[in-house]
Amino acid sequence: MVATNPLFAGGSFYKKFQATVINDIWPEVAFFSLVATMVTLVSKLTPHDLSISNAMLTVLGTVLGLVISFRTSTAYERFSEGRKLWTNIAIASRNLAQVIWIHVPFDRVDKATGEKKPHLQVVIEKKSMINLVQAYSVAVKHMLRGEGGVYYADLYPMISFLPRFSQPLDKATEEDMLPLWKASDMDHDAHRSIRTETLMSTHMSRSASSPLPQSSEDGEKSEKSSWFGSKRVKRAKFDPEMALPVLPSERPLLPARNPPESSLYDYFGFLRIFKPIIKPFSRRLRQVTTPPEPMSARGRTITGKRIRPELADSNVPVEIALFLTTYFASLMRQGLLTPASATAMNNAITTLQDTVVNLERIRSTPLPFAYQAHLRLSLWLYLFFLPFQVYSAFKWLTIPATAFAAFLLCGFLEIGQEIENPFNYDLNDLDLDQFCLAIQRELHEVTAHTTPDPESFIFTEWNQPFAPADRRNAKEMLSDIEHAYHGLDTGVHHIRRTLIKSWADVDEMTRK
């Protein structure tokens, strides 16, 4: 996302150019400039004067400007709401992880055997569920970008341990595959031919509880490259997927981020008119085995308009929320949560589900077609008749004046169209990848907390609770039993006097 002032900030000029809407509006600007050129040349070089009265110019221009301003403001509201909803996901994920890691007890007793559960087993359980919380935001990101399924480098490693079938492995058939995996693999040959007698084969052993062993050579390759389709692509220097588990999958994993590749046409949009001539020659150079690009990777039309990705009916966030709710129900049955902690955990899960529904609402509810079509048609008619109305006053300046007006009005209209769905790969869209990585860092920070007993760190020499009035540490104050703080009748009064003095000192020291 480009969010800095392009006039004063450094960085790539070409990247900032792609963040503009010039490539989207240049055909319209060129067309209306040609109309203005035609009006000027005919009126100047022939006896015919094409100028008309400009009585309607001011009225129509004011109304059209207000409507375009309303269109842009409405789109920005959707952009801003999308950012707020992602903040809700971050807060709910953090709260849910804190409840699981801190409030769910580590010391447990197995009700079946009456023995204490190993500490490692409890930590693995809690950490695995927090990984599912992290996977939820990643699944939402892919859903909003029109990328269905679970086979992505940043999603699959965190949910690969979830069950595949509703029946035990030795009795499972294709009809027993759970929706999370069936929706992702319905077009995959590996799961189209599932049979009971072949479930234990090497190819399908990933459906069991044991992953395929990896050789050291494969492990080294997995750190250096990632799968996209049937081709290996070298990883960039920044590779956040290296922090995820390394697990084999029954099909190649798509990259976590798959934006459309930049080409010459993205910088010189007018060259797209020659693309049909070049296309037959470039097609011969492609490999026959190259898979078709997903919609998210297809850049622009021949006129330079961005191609929006198709909506993907993804149930992955719903399935992950169901597993989190199942874990919550299991904790409640075992009596491991206090009422307050149970309420906080349930509210966090509910917030995650409510937020994804609202994000889906923003993504799948564009402005009505009649409104967009009427507004664009009105703008085109206004710009078409503009040179006829201003020629008598502008003469040769009619051409640049019309071009500037078309650039201004069409640009604002296109900006509104671009930011009303801020979840794609455009440089003006929200940086969903960074949002997910921020959630990942926060959740790992939560699980790095050792949940120590407060007494182990409060009453030490590193704590000066009454500073600045009393700069002794907690250990000194507890050991000095002769001090007035320890008096039976006067101790509380002396402590309060010290705290009031601390307030007075802080109030004086922090004011200029």
Automatic annotation (TrEMBL):
Q: InterPro entries from the xrefs?
A: YneE/VCCN1/2-like
User: Cross-referenced Pfam families, in alphabetical order?
Assistant: Bestrophin_2
Instruction: Give the species this sequence originates from.
Output: Phanerochaete sordida
**Localization per record:** Cell membrane
A molecular function annotated in GO for this UniProt entry is:
chloride channel activity
Per the record, which residues fall in region Disordered? 200-227
Main subcellular location of this protein, as a coarse class: membrane
State the organism's lineage.
Eukaryota, Fungi, Dikarya, Basidiomycota, Agaricomycotina
* Key words of the record: Cell membrane, Ion transport, Membrane, Transmembrane, Transmembrane helix, Transport
GO CC annotations on file: plasma membrane
Q: How does it sit in the membrane?
A: Multi-pass membrane protein
**Could you identify this protein by its name?**
Bestrophin, RFP-TM, chloride channel-domain-containing protein
Q: What top-level branch of life does the organism fall under?
A: Eukaryota
Ranges of biased composition (kind: Low complexity): 205-216
